[in-house]
């Protein structure tokens, strides 16, 4: 498995656990709490990836650009999270009505 794929799978798993289990139980519909918890979960992804790639000099290929582990993790985390976050808030707001 490539390093890029393993990071994207890690990001996906963290995001799915966060939005399917952690956020509904701990944050509910409160956007501010979700934002705080999201900083923690994205930080968790960065810590896990840093544990493996910090100081290794590994370059990651992102849309024909070479980036380091930090930017690759952060950018892919954001890209994976945005549609799930939009779905989460849309579902939370529709339950309010």
Topology:
Elements lengths: L2 H24 L4 H23 L6 E3 L2 E3 L1 H28 L1
Antiparallel strand pairs: 1-2
Helix pairs in contact: 1-2, 1-3, 2-3
How many helical elements?
3
The beta-strand count equals 2
Strand content: 5-15%
Largest sheet: 2 strands, antiparallel
Tell me the number of structural domains: 1
Helix content: over 70%
**Shape, please?**
elongated
Separation of the first and last Cα atoms: 45 Å
Question: What this model shows, in words?
Answer:
With 97 residues, this protein is mainly alpha-helical. The chain has one domain (3-63, 72-96). The protein has three helices and two strands; from the N terminus they run H-H-E-E-H. The protein has a two-stranded antiparallel ribbon with strand order 1-2. Helix 1 (3-26) packs parallel to helix 3. The radius of gyration is 15 Å and the shape is elongated.
How would you summarize what this structure contains?
The chain has 97 residues and is mainly alpha-helical.
Based on the model shown, name its key terms.
2 strands, two-stranded antiparallel ribbon, mainly alpha, 97 residues
């Amino acid at each position: 498995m490539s390093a890029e794929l393993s990071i994207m799978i890690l990001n996906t798993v963290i995001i799915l656990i966060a939005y399917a289990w952690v956020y509904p139980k701990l944050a509910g519909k409160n956007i501010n709490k979700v934002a705080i918890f999201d900083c923690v979960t994205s930080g968790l992804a960065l810590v896990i990836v840093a544990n493996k790639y910090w100081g290794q000099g590994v370059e990651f290929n992102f849309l024909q650009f070479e980036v380091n582990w930090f930017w690759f993790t952060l950018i892919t985390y954001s890209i994976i999270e945005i549609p799930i976050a939009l779905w989460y808030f849309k579902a939370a707001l529709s339950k309010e009505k």
